[in-house]
Design brief:
about 150 residues; alpha+beta; Beta-Lactamase; 4 helices; binds methionine sulfoxide
Length: about 150
Amino acid sequence: MDKSKIFNNLIKKVKEIVDDSSDRNEKLMRICMLLKREVPYYDWVGFYITDESKNELLLGPFSGEPTEHVRIPFGKGICGQAAEKRHTIVVQDVSKEKNYLSCSPAVKSEIVVPIFKNEKIVGELDIDSHSYAPFTREDRQFLEKICNIVAKIF
Ligand code: SME
């Protein structure tokens, strides 16, 4: 699988979605569906939106199985840790992570990338995989790029 070819193509498509005339939620939803469809090991793709008044993350558009984790306080789970530490977190085997909020036993690994706007965390992109250790440096760089592009609509 040629990740760089797939990722370069997806960056172009995400830019097109961000620049079109639909509203933010619809754009985010289409990005979730696109990433889930085009990357075989992305099994759940979703955005969390920051609720600044409460230091919590609220579930936004997602593609995949429904999750009970619709509100996550900063510091809790992998999503909450990424918001608190202000950087991407990659967990290649979630069974080894103590501070983890499980959505489904099928999930084996996870990557969470914060979305920054004017140095504030306005949201996150969260991806679960049913494979162990599928995320490489390429995934991380790709998803950080996607979050930079998406920051424009926050
Ligand atoms: N596993 C996440 C919770 C969100 S779900 O993956 C959709 C966490 O530990 O923060």
